Amino acid sequence: MSQIRRSQFITTYGPGAILEGKNGPRIIPSVQLSQVYAGRKVLDFEITDQRLPRNILGGAGILRLPSNAEVREPEIKEIYKTKRFPAWSLCTRHHILYRKYQNDNQACPKCPPLPNPSAAWNRASQQAIRFVRACPSGHLDDVEWVKIIHHKQPHCNPDYLNWQGSGALRNIDIECPHCLASINLGLAYSRDWPCSGRFPELEDPTTNLQQHENCSEKARILQRGAANLRICEVQTALTIPKCDTNLHNLLSTSSILARLHPLPTSKSDFLDGLQFLEKQGLLTHTMLEQISGYSETEILGACADIVQAKIPKNAYEMRQDEFHALKDAATHGHPPVKPNRPGDPPLFEILRTIDLCVAKRTHSKSRWVWRTKAMSKSASCPAAWIESVTA
Ligand SMILES: [Zn+2]
Ligand SMILES: [Zn+2]
Ligand SMILES: [Zn+2]
Q1: Quick one: which of 53, 95, 151, 226 is 20 to 30 A from 70 by CA?
Q2: Which ligand is located closest to the Cα atom of residue 140?
Q3: Cα-based torsion angle of the residue sequence 365, 367, 368, 374 in order, rounded to the nearest 10 degrees
Q4: Distance from the CA of 333 to the center of ligand 3, in angstroms?
Q5: Is residue 138 within 8 Å of 199, Cβ to Cβ?
Q6: Ligand with smallest separation from the Cα of 139
Q7: Cβ count within 10 A of residue 312
Q8: Is 224 within a domain?
Q9: 318 falls within a domain
Q10: pLDDT for 353
Q11: pLDDT for residue 386
């Protein structure tokens, strides 16, 4: 088990990445196979955003991962299931390349048996081979170590192979213990191999079933820790006016969003509908209470903003909208965004304050002060306010 921060999941350790755990490497499966939301309501982890999902994410929603603390599990409890990968192992004592299949006490076929099957699986995982096979279409699999050797006998299918030599790859030969045919690892590393079309991240981590599809790409042997083995694609979006308040956020929850056509005409009718959603478990009581705290004008206004919001058709349009929103805020300021809890500082605000020193010199100059949630603790100290832009 390894502890990773949720932000690392976006970049380094997302689905398809190989995590180097205490007991050997593990593949990180897709969120839906990870059981991270098992026994929990997925909707409680929804990140509401209208602009990104519709066209750019092809209609997919956005979720955040729960932390152990949030779901009241101890820090050492595994809440995101992973799967051991690669399956082949190398015993450096006996120079044996082997694959463990049986749930017995044996790891390396020449090492003495271990006390129990779990210890044997751990040993095999800790000895995991550092080479894997990948293709440009994103498939990833074990190297077919037995098949890359041109055997001298038909139907030669040994349980293990001999790993001969050490150091540079060209100094290593992999030999079949039955027919004594071998292949040089340096040569195997430098040439193309057929792709098995496997997506280990789409496999249920609780079974041994594999997921394959047809692939005509050529695969290469790579080190499992290579930086070019997996490159993530990150999509980012800023929440921009008018849909940037806490109320807009609440009303953009997918269960509520579906009820905004036609637009509600009164707060009481709208809340009746939301109570129905709460009874169905599609809305939490806290969310309902938060929404009820807003006035009819605020609620009806926000519903209209959400329905009429401009949805960007592509990433370029999205960036343009964000740029104009930032420019607009820098020119005209931005009113405080209500905090989630009463009494907390605003979530976001751009204040226009006259800087007296600057104003003395030239009355035409004024200063914009950006205050963000991160800075709110020191908001009473103007010197700690970040960034100022002269208008
Ligand atoms: Zn051994
Ligand atoms: Zn052979
Ligand atoms: Zn492929």
Answers
A1: 53
A2: 3
A3: 170
A4: 51
A5: yes
A6: 3
A7: 19
A8: no
A9: no
A10: 55
A11: 32
